[in-house]
Design a protein that fits this description.
84 residues; mainly alpha
Length: 84
Amino acid sequence: MSINNVGVLFRQMDERDELRQSIYRCKNKGELVKILDMHQMSFTIDEFEEAANVFHAKCQSQEEADWLFGKVNWFRFLYYSLAN
């Protein structure tokens, strides 16, 4: 379930330094996809955007929305700054 995978990534980015560091070392989108696959967190960018919308609709406070958009914007920046 790709929506769940996005949620897992967001939670684990706060909890797992080694995952975060390996993602930061990616030189292209292919490496990023491999790392996500290795950790059973596969999703496409379209699935990511869908998940972001679903999670946003479920936010019950400004704090939850701020946390979510911090993660969403972080991933968008990372993804779109990587070479194909």
